[in-house]
Fold:
Amino acid sequence: MCLLRRWHDRRRLWAGLALVAALVIAWGSLTPGDELPSSLPWDKASHFLGYAAIAGLVGLAGLRLPLAFAAAVLFGVAVEFAQTLVPGRVGGDPADLMANALGAACAVLVLWALRRRALR
Structure:
């Protein structure tokens, strides 16, 4: 319980890290296609981990977990849509959206389990 409480006492830190994570993801996702490597290894794992980070950090920052999940998923949808406007990028890939949502869901479920365990 003590460790979880100390984590939550740093809400501004988590919010700042969530913002940094979102900016890094947006920058990487909205880079024109000709500036990217020809092959990106572990593309779906990168989506999963990136959006897990956003949802987890937003949840630690104090947003209710269902809203943290929704915020991460909506951010992913917005980025995928914005990619359609970037030269050399396709965007709107359903597999990317699924990886984003699964990563966000896993992070939220882990935080939920930790909070539930801490309350025992």
Remarks:
- Helices lie at 2-8, 11-29, 43-60, 65-83, 94-118.
- The two ends are 9 Å apart (CA to CA).
